[in-house]
Amino acid sequence: MIRILIVDDEQPIANLIRMNLSRMGYACTCAYDGQAAADLVERESFDLILLDIMLPKFDGYDLLAFIRPMNIPVIFLTAKSDVNDRVKGLKLGAEDYIVKPFELVELVARIEVVLRRYNKSRTYLSILDIVIDYEGRSVLRNGEKIELTRKEFDLLVVLCQNPNTALFREQLFERIWETDYMGETRTLDSHIQRLRRKLGWQDRIKTVHKVGYRLDVPMDKMPQETKEPV
Amino acid sequence: MIRILIVDDEQPIANLIRMNLSRMGYACTCAYDGQAAADLVERESFDLILLDIMLPKFDGYDLLAFIRPMNIPVIFLTAKSDVNDRVKGLKLGAEDYIVKPFELVELVARIEVVLRRYNKSRTYLSILDIVIDYEGRSVLRNGEKIELTRKEFDLLVVLCQNPNTALFREQLFERIWETDYMGETRTLDSHIQRLRRKLGWQDRIKTVHKVGYRLDVPMDKMPQETKEPV
DNA sequence: AAAGTTGTGTCAGAAATATGACAAAAGGCT
DNA sequence: AGCCTTTTGTCATATTTCTGACACAACTTT
Question: Which residue among B6, B33, B90, B169 is the one 20 to 30 A from A188 at the CA level?
C-alpha cells in the first residue's frame, strides 16, 4: 500500500484530499503544520508527500530541505501562480508542483507519474476481463485498447474501485463532475449507457433503483493491482 | 565519464575516497582547501562535488554558495550530526549530505541517486525505433540522424521518459516552457504536429482529449538506457 | 394502472484539436 | 551593425470529439 503524507494547514483542504486519495486506494495521513509533518516523517515512512508551502511554525521550504535527504518525492501545492516560489521549490528538490485550485484527476495523475519515476509502482487495476491503466488513462481487454472519453474513464474508475457497492447518483456526481446533484437530467444515465455499450457490460453495471448504480463482480474476479498490464 | 571533485582538508580521507570511487569508474580530482576547490571548479567541469564543510581558508558554505550558480550537484560531508548545519547546507542548495564516518557503499549509493536525479548517468535512451542522444541532443534512427529543434527535442524527451502516460498539457508546458499553462495558444499542438511528422509517429503520439498527449509504446519496446547508441 | 425512475437513440452546441500559412523572434555569419 | 536562416509562436480555419439534453420508450414500485 502506498503511503502519502498530506501537509496543509487548511484542514478542510487536507481532509478533502485525504478522502479522495483514500478512495483511490492510497493510505493517507495528514499533518497541519511543519513541525507535525517533520515528526511524522521521522517516525513513519512515506512514499510520497504532498506539501503546501505556506505553513505555520516552520515553513514548506524548511520541511522540503529536511525531507530531501530521505529521498522521498514531494509534490508541492502552491496557491497562486507565483513562479519564484515554484522555481525555489523545484531547486530544493521537489519533484513536481501543482497550482491550487486543481482538479483531482490531475493530482492523481501527477502522483502516479511521480511514483512511477521513483519505481514505487505503476499499478494497473485488473478487474473482470479488463485492465485499467491509470496513468495512460486507457483500458485494455486481451491486449486490445478500448478508447474511453474522459468522463467515461473517470466513471469506470469509480465503479471499479467500489465493486459490489451501490453508489448513489449523488456520489457519482460529486466524484466525477465535482459538483452537486444534477437531478433532472439524464446525463449520468447516458454515460452509464455508453460505458455499458463500450465494455459490453450491460449486465455487469446494475441499476439500483432509486439509488444509483453498482458494478457486480464475482468474488474470483475482484479487482487486483498488478505491475503488469496482464 | 563522470567527473567528481572531492574537497576535504584531511588528505588521507580525500584520497581514500578517491581511490574507491576511481575503482567504481568515476574520474576523481581532489582539492584540499576551499581556494583550490574554487579554482578547479572554475577551470574544469565536474558532474558532482563531494564537499567537506570544515575547511581552512574559505569554508564549505562559502564554496557552496560559489558553486551554486553552476548547477553542479553537491553532496556535503559533515562531521557533526547537527540538524541546523544540515538544513543550512541543504537550503544553500546541496543535494544531500552524509555524516562522517560513513560507509563507502552508502556514499556510492547516494552519489548514484544524485547523478540520476541530474540525468548525468545516462547517455542514450533507445525507444521504439529511435535512439536519443542526450548529450548530443540528437536523435538517431538506423544510424540516420533526425534533426530536431530545441523545443522538439525537449518535448520528445519528456514524452519518451513517460511512455504510455497521458501527460497533461499543463505538465508539458511546465516542463518544456517552464511557465504556466498557456491555455489559449496552439503552440503545443504545433510542436506535437512537427514531431509527429518528423518522426513519422502520427499514431504513436496519441491525443488524449481534454488531457494532453501520450506516447504509446508496446511493452517490448519500452525505453532502455544504454551506454552505446545501439 | 398511475406515478415515478431509468434506458436509449439522436442531436446540436460547445469545446478541443489539427493544420497550414505566416509573423515574430532568435541565432549565425560576415 | 546588417543580412540571412532557422526556430518558434500565433492566427484563422477546418475538423473532430465530447457532452449534456431531450423525447419518448421501457421498466419498477406502489
Answer: B169
